[in-house]
Amino acid sequence: MCWAHLRREFIKISERPGVSKELGTALVLQQEKLFELWHRVRDGTLKRCEFQLLVQEIRNSLKSSLEEAADCEIGSVEKTPLAKTVRTCRQILKVEPALWLFVTVEGVEPTNNAAERAIRPAVIWRRTSFGSQTQAGSTFVTRMLTVVTSLKSQRKNVLDFMTHAVGAARDGNPAPSLLPEVNTSQEQVINVA
Question: Which of 97, 106, 130, 170: CA 20 to 30 A from 15?
């Protein structure tokens, strides 16, 4: 679950008339409070244990607002702004526990920005080149983009890696690994323990 996408949904709700506007505004405010606290956790001015306690009030308020909207009666084919809001709130409630995983698990981010940045080159390539026309071409592109993205995330030179990979294939040797190198001092500590 990505809170950046969720925020967009809350803003859409707040731009609808009537009850939806009030609900959406309340949801946006709760999301803003949450991210004020999250930024303090990231910059080290708020301890995670304190963050977890403060988030509980925000979670309860947000869930209560979603449940209030979800309880509204709507027709199965109704397309009013309120019906859209109710359906959105019902969908969010189905995955509500997943929204809070980043609060309790260190290393989990509240947004998927890193993942979206990682796939951005592939999306741009597909749009500018009209994709690939065969399964073999799609497989090749998938593998090349995986290699390039993996190497860039490790700050390794793509051309050097590809040169070694082609040389290894010509010589009948195993291809070089894309896995990050393990720090030997960390490896020794693990073996000693």
Answer: 97
